[in-house]
Amino acid sequence: MPITTCIFDAYGTLFDVAAAARIAAAEPGREDFARHWPQIAQNWRLKQLQYTWLRAVMNQHCDFWDVTQDGLDWALEAEGLDDPDLRERLLQLYWELEAYPEVPAMLQALKDKGMNTAILSNGSPKMLEGAVQSARIGDVLDDVLSVETVGIFKPADVVYDLVCGRFGCVSDEVLFVSSNGWDAAAAAGYGFTTAWVNRGNEPIDRLPGKPHHLLSDLTGIPALAV
User: Distance (Å, rounded) from C-alpha 36 to C-alpha 89?
Assistant: First the structure.
């Protein structure tokens, strides 16, 4: 069955989650932070994801903004940094994450082919709205779907259910794109055709589902939407 609908994870897939720490590290007066920012960015993202999984297992759902703050606090403490002003600046920048350079043209190419395009994210609606506006990609997205609709984080099946419910399609018509190997694997197991954007050249996760396509960035996505 031909692909009619292209769905994207947001953070790490369309939006560069390391941008907040990278930008802050380049600002005057942040020389100490500049020595730590790569590790902090990595740990921040890791803990943010781990907390979503753990909260899903414990049935303790919360707004994604809460786990984003909790993950940052863990990452800063792990590096021995206690700087309220820095914390506030990093959180501010997270609302203004940069999109990867190829994103606007890639989404436009999909729209030119007549595809439905949307985000499916753990992010809260307000967070996603801020990121989409900052990246100026709202005009090439048909919708932005948040897990807040169902009250549980990915990779719960009810999250992936949102796609076909919104677009009136079947799973075979969906190309799901994520930079998270576990997300692409879970979506493949659900029934979507999946593309894993493996920017870090990481090994494939040992999970029941496997991504159908492996890419180093998003430029090849329009060629898969057939």
Answer: 15
Report yes or no: 143 and 162 within 8 Å, Cβ to Cβ: no
Do residues 118 and 182 both lie within one domain? yes
How many angstroms separate the CA atoms of 127 and 219, rounded? 25
Strand partners, 7: 118, 176
Is residue 9 part of the annotated active site? The answer reads yes
pTM for the full model?
A: 0.96
Query: Same domain for 218 and 178?
Result: yes
pLDDT tens for each residue of the chain, 226 residues long: 899 999 999 999 999 999 999 999 999 999 999 999 999 999 999 999 999 999 999 999 999 999 999 999 999 999 999 999 999 999 999 999 999 999 999 999 999 999 999 999 999 999 999 999 999 999 999 999 999 999 999 999 999 999 999 999 999 999 999 999 999 999 999 999 999 999 999 999 999 999 999 999 999 999 999 8
Residue 85 Cα distances to 79, 91, 92, 130, angstroms: 16, 10, 11, 21
For 143, the enclosing helix (H) or strand (E) is strand 143-146
Q: What is the distance between the alpha carbons of residues 43 and 74, in angstroms, rounded to a whole number?
A: 8
77 and 138 in one domain? Answer: no
Asked whether residue 145 falls in the same domain as residue 219, the answer is yes
Q: Do 211 and 195 meet the contact criterion of CB atoms below 8 Å apart?
A: yes
Which member of 9, 70, 73, 139 is catalytic? 9
Phi, psi values for residue 30, rounded to 5°: -110, 30
The alpha carbons of the chain give a radius of gyration, in whole angstroms, of 17
